[in-house]
Amino acid sequence: MQTKLLTISIPYTFVRGGYFYFSRRVPRDVEKHYSYPRVVLGLRTSSPQRARSLARAASTNLEAYWAQLRLADRSVPGLALVRSSSKKIQESPEVISKASPDFFSSSCPTLSDALEFYLRLNGNGRAKTFVAAGHRNIGYVVEAIGNKPLDQYLRRDALQLRDWFLARGMSGSTVTRNFSYIRAVVNFAISEHALDIRNPFTGVYYDRSAGVKERQPIPLTDLKRVQRQCRLMDDDLRWLIALVSDTGMRLAEATGLLKDDFKDLNGPAPHVVIQKHPWRRLKTASSERLVPLTGMALWAARRTVSGVESSPFAFPRYNKTSTSSADTASAALNKWLRLYVPKGCTMHSFRHSMRDRLRAVECPTEVADQIGGWSPSGIGQSYGSGYPLEVLKTWLDRATST
To answer: Looking at domain 111-192, which CATH architecture does it have?
Structure first.
């Protein structure tokens, strides 16, 4: 209520997300120079006093600019004799509408403003990596082509950014991730600020396969050797590796497990519940699932539950902060794993191996997707509640027993 009263007393402003925005309708007699009938500008402040001052300045500047547009539309005697210091007034309306920033300050937020707005509304509860990726990717844009108002980025800027990425030796998949984040930030700002502009970072062409190294599955003989070493060493790191090796779950899914996520370990249908936790989000909606525990995964689950007494986490060494440290786990486990698997194989290779092992026993695609939490390939596969746990266990038993 307090904020609403404040906006009434500050002309041409509104509040969104706790911050003030300037908004003013373009007069009809100069509307033809604009692609949108309203000027909206983020004032980047939550202070009513500063917002009042900034809004007044913005309104004054607009009035001056509109006055020059009106003058340009008229036939003024002797205007051709005006010296070059006033030459901008002589320009055609189309040129004036594209004047440099010192002549007319854009009403659009800058890219850095758009990122701040995006993170403020979408970053709550997200992992630190989400925020870090935002600053990193927008930082790339600023370094390569500058921090501009959104309506001043052109297609050639996006192409220049692409060339800059490739010149740095980024792979096609990395370029794709970067552009995806940049597009999301710009699209969000366009939608929330009702901007009548196109996103120039959409549809940029490049070779998406360039420099991409395909992850290889771990050959079955090497996989079995790793599992034997896990039994011999019998510690929490090896339990984590063994759990992933015979379930195909993502490493991040495993590191964020609670001991209570393991169910019926001594019963007929032992399984693990993959679900969202405040400290570990899931990659996709289909990642939330039940995974049967067989082979070395069942051994690892039992050892984990009985071996960890002082923490509710299955792997407490990677859950000492508000978010699970899956990256730390990956670095440590991959370093050990390299001693036993072919070059290029990593912890994620167990996931590729599981898919191949399920194919080898002719497991139906829908069953395999449900076991691994892969997104279904067709609309029909998303209907219903999926296969019962007993069916999943049957196929996973076959895959892990070979």
So the answer is: Orthogonal Bundle (1.10)
Q: What is the pLDDT of residues 253-299, one digit of tens each?
A: 999 999 999 999 999 999 999 999 988 888 888 889 999 999 999 99
Residue with tokens 């001991």: 259
> For residues 320 and 324, what is the distance between their CA atoms, to the nearest angstrom?
8
223 pLDDT more than 90: yes
Instruction: Decide if 111-192 and 220-400 have a common fold.
Output: no
Per residue in 82-95, pLDDT tens?
Answer: 444 333 333 333 33
Dump the DSSP string for 281-345: --SSGGG-EEEE--HHHHHHHHHHHHH--S-SBSSGGG-SSSS--HHHHHHHHHHHHTTTS-TT-
What's the pTM value of the predicted model, to 2 decimals? 0.59
Backbone angles phi, psi at 245, to 5 degrees: -65, -35
d(CA 368, CA 238): 25
Give the residue extent of every domain in the chain. 2-75, 111-192, 220-400
Length of the chain (residues): 402
Tell me the per-residue pLDDT of 346-375, one tens digit each, with 9 for 90 and over.
999 999 999 999 999 999 999 999 999 988
- Name the nearest CA neighbour of 41 among 98, 145, 99, 114: 114
Fold of domain 220-400: hpI Integrase; Chain A (1.10.443)
Planar angle of CA 103, 45, 53, nearest 5 degrees: 55
